[in-house]
Amino acid sequence: MARMLTLLRHVPGFLKLFGRLLVDRRVGALPKMALLLPLAYVILPVDLDFFPIIGQVDDLIVLIVGCRAFIRLCPAEVVEEHVRRIDAGT
């Protein structure tokens, strides 16, 4: 439970980071698609409910994988710059 609360505290920072990276011109189209396609999947009424267990958590899995891929595909120096700015409150 404590890990979940810790993770939830970081959600606003991650959302700021994702937003900043999405509008940064130094980030290419591939990383942006790695985030936007999973978001579209979650929003659209497509589901894998016909698979036992997977159908119940597919949106969460797709979203987590997309977020991780987005950060990993972005240039590290750009990610670090935005993290520093978010931490500094600018």
Characteristic key phrases:
about 90 residues, about 80% helix
Question: Can you describe what's shown?
Answer:
With 90 residues, the chain is mainly alpha-helical. The protein has one domain. Helix content is 78%, strand content 0%. The protein contains four helices and no strands. The N and C termini lie far apart (31 Å).
- The N- to C-terminal Cα distance equals 31 Å
Question: For the residues shown, what is the average pLDDT?
Answer: 89
Query: Low-confidence parts lasting 5 or more residues at pLDDT below 50?
Result: none
SSE order in H/E notation?
A: HHHH
**Main structural class:** mainly alpha
Strand content: under 5%
Number of domains: 1
Number of helices: 4
Largest sheet: none
Q: What is the tally of beta strands?
A: 0
Overall form: globular
Oligomer designation: single chain
| Rg estimate, integer Å | 15 Å
Brief description of this entry?
This protein is an all-alpha fold and 90 residues long. The protein has 4 helices and no strands. Helix 1 packs across helix 4 and helix 2 runs antiparallel to helix 3 (54-73).
